[in-house]
From TrEMBL:
<dbReference type="InterPro" id="IPR052554">
    <property type="entry name" value="2-oxoglutarate_synth_KorC"/>
</dbReference>
<feature type="domain" description="Pyruvate/ketoisovalerate oxidoreductase catalytic">
    <location>
        <begin position="10"/>
        <end position="173"/>
    </location>
</feature>
<dbReference type="GO" id="GO:0016903">
    <property type="term" value="F:oxidoreductase activity, acting on the aldehyde or oxo group of donors"/>
</dbReference>
<dbReference type="InterPro" id="IPR002869">
    <property type="entry name" value="Pyrv_flavodox_OxRed_cen"/>
</dbReference>
<dbReference type="Pfam" id="PF01558">
    <property type="entry name" value="POR"/>
</dbReference>
<dbReference type="InterPro" id="IPR019752">
    <property type="entry name" value="Pyrv/ketoisovalerate_OxRed_cat"/>
</dbReference>
<protein>
    <submittedName>
        <fullName>2-oxoglutarate ferredoxin oxidoreductase subunit gamma</fullName>
    </submittedName>
</protein>
<keyword id="KW-0560">Oxidoreductase</keyword>
Length: 178
């Protein structure tokens, strides 16, 4: 089982990242659950979603502790990092983080998500870069399997674009352990 949170601000694709992850996990035979929270503002307000992925039945969509935290902003890290279990994984968008120290009891991975999305020609693909970083850091789902299902996800929505896969692939490739 994996208890995951994506957190950031509205407009960064936080909720969409969670929805993509649960669809791909479900396509790969996992049980999934997704819950979201967001402020009244459409863009710029706090946005987060919790994702639970399991081989077994899911008891609660609201985990007490997180296995994985994907932070699109430094404020999200400051607010939610205390919920990550010792030995858990944190993925940060280094584009929006200042220099800082991280606790030794969690594994921290960083990716320059905004720059990578721009490099891929899709500035709105920040969330796909973060998904690539998360898959790299956790190895939760095979990279190629995830990419294939990601492509299918966008094609079903009529939004097939090679830039989507490029964002994911670059996020995977350019993630570093902090």
């Amino acid at each position: 089982m994996a208890d995951i949170m994506f957190a950031g601000i509205g407009g960064q694709g936080v909720l969409t990242a969670g929805k993509i992850l649960i669809e791909i996990a479900a396509e790969n035979g996992k049980n999934v659950c997704w819950t979201s929270e967001y402020s009244a503002e459409m863009r710029g307000g706090i946005s987060l979603c919790r994702v639970v992925i399991s081989d077994e039945e899911i008891g609660s969509p609201y985990p007490d502790v997180l296995d994985v935290l994907c932070c699109m902003t430094e404020d999200a890290y400051d607010q939610y990092s205390c919920q990550v279990r010792p030995g858990g994984t944190v993925i940060i968008n280094r584009s929006l983080f200042s220099e800082r120290d991280f606790p030794e009891e969690v594994q921290v991975y960083g990716v320059d998500a905004m720059e990578i999305a721009a490099e891929a020609g899709s500035p709105r693909g920040l969330n796909l870069v973060m998904l690539g970083a998360m898959i790299r850091a956790t190895e939760m789902i095979d990279k190629d399997q995830f990419a294939d299902t990601l492509n299918e996800y966008f094609e079903k929505k009529g939004k097939g674009d090679p830039k989507n896969l490029r964002c994911f692939a670059l996020g995977y490739e350019k993630t570093v352990k902090m």
